[in-house]
Every structure is written in C-alpha cells, then in structure tokens.
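Student: I would love a firmer grasp of how sequence relates to backbone shape in proteins. Thank you; the sequence and its tokens follow:
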Amino acid sequence: MTPRTTHLYIVGTPRSGTTLLAATLDRHSNIAVTPETHFHTDFCEKNAGLFKGPREHLVETLLNDRYISDLRLDQNSLVEQIGQDWEDPASVLRALMDTYRRANGKSIAAEKTPAHLHHVEKLLEGSETSRVVCIVRDGRDVAMSLLNMPSKPFPSLRRQALLWKHDARKIQLFEKTISDRFLRVHFEDLVSDPVPTLKKVVEFVGVEFEPGQTDSRREVGVVPDWEAGWKGKVNQSMDPKRSQAWKNWPDADSKLDVLNSVVGKELVALGYEDSTPLPLSKFSRLKNTTLNTIYAILFTPRLSSLRRSFKDRMKLWGLWRLFHRSADTHQASNA
C-alpha cells in the first residue's frame, strides 16, 4: 500500500464520471470530498491580486465565491487553517480542503473540479503527499453528453471531441512524467464492476476499501442543491448502460465520422475500441481534415484566456455556430 495521501484531487474531462467517483470516495469514513471549487480555473484567474493583499480580504472573498461558498466553511476556522500561507494559491486550496474535512470529521481531504486536469502541476506543488486520480470516459460518449448539456458555450460535436482529445493527450503525458502521483481509472469499469476500480483508487490513496462506498442510498456532500438537476444520477445505483452508449445512437455513422476524425488515435491509445466507419471518400477526408484544422486553431488551449477576454465573444460564436451547423450538416449528408 502506498504512503497515506493527505490531499487528493479528482479530475477529468467534464461528463466523464468525476462526480460519481467523488461520491463513492466521499462515502469512505476517512475521505471528505468537497463540492467543486473551480479554484484554479475560476477563482485564481479572477482574483490573482488577492494573494498579495491582506489575508482577511482573501478569506472574505473566498467565502463569498459562487463555488467555494458551497463548502459552507467557518471563517475563523479557515483563517486559522490558512495561517501565514495566504500568498501561495496551492497552500490556500489545501487549507480550504483541510477546513472542510475537519468540519466533517475525516482525515483525508479531497477535491473534485474536472478542469483542474489542466492545473495538475499547481495542485501537487509544495506537497509530497498530494495525489491526483483522473477518470476517463470514452470520448464518443463524452462529446455527446457535453453536447446535450443544458448550458454550453459552443454547441458543436467536433468542438466537444477536440476538448476530449486535448485532455487525453495531457493524461498520457502525466502518466509518463508523474506516474507515482497520477492514477487513471475508467468510467466504464466503475459503472460495470465498481469494487475493483474503487479498491485500486483507495489503495492509491493509502486506505482500505469499504463496502459502503457503493451504497447510493448514503448521502454525500459533493453535489450542492443548485447542481442536482444535472448531477442527480450520483444518488442512483451504478448503471452499466451508461457505458459505451454511443453504440446505440440513432444516425451513428455520421456522428462517428466526425468523432473518429478528431479522436480516433487517442481512443485507441487509451484502450478504447476503434469505431472508424468504412473508408470515406477523398472529399470527406479532406473536409474532415480542413474542419479539424480550423477548430484546432480557433480552440487551442493557448488562446483560452484571449477568447474569454472578448466582450463580443457570444456574438462571434453565434456567427460561428451558423457556419458550423451548415458545414456539419453538409458533411453528414455526404458521409
């Protein structure tokens, strides 16, 4: 068994099962999993200057943050936990987690924000006993699930597939560079046979598996009330039918044409079945290559902050959606 973990971070592409995994871990008697904090992806980006100012101002802003307020932390306890380390964001996040796990009477602090996958180095900074568990789901199912969410900034199957592709490459990199502190598990294994997957995770953390972790009747604190509408399945029994749902899609071929042109190599690299359709025409291959290149340039992670800074980005995306819909409709009809 590995040395006991003090801080665990649950990451992954959105709609990959991070909430489900977080719930099963929160049911462990030693592990307290916070609701999503979006600490590095939202709070730090908006409030970077606070880490150089008075501690009290930082704490007040933390407790009033739209995500962090879901932890319902006591102000005095948080101030005490932060101590003199408020200028270090990584230490502040660990203090948030420690305040939460102490309030819940547990010994291991865990946090789940899917997009923290892009901040793994920051999560592990300054703590040798911090670890990351990343849950991966078939990119075809992820893309469709993201596309069907009630709120999305860019309703495009190709765009969602590109998001999964970027994450898949980052996951493979972490497995090579920090394999002793980064564990990959699969959503499909978790929902079809949860016990072996959970035993693997808790062994990585440094504790023993508890049967109650799979009991969906036990309440967990990882989903605040305002998120229950689209994360309510966390309180349901494991459903193996959620695995590889793409095989039952209507009009699957046209969707798989788009998806495999974007994520085909990464699917195989992460152990998933190759679903490449019959050979496409040269025209279809050229169209996929062209559209994938355009999307890759427009949505490269390096331009994410620039895109967010555009005051008229919604107007820009509105025009782009019109182009995308006509292009993908034409592509599907010619697949």
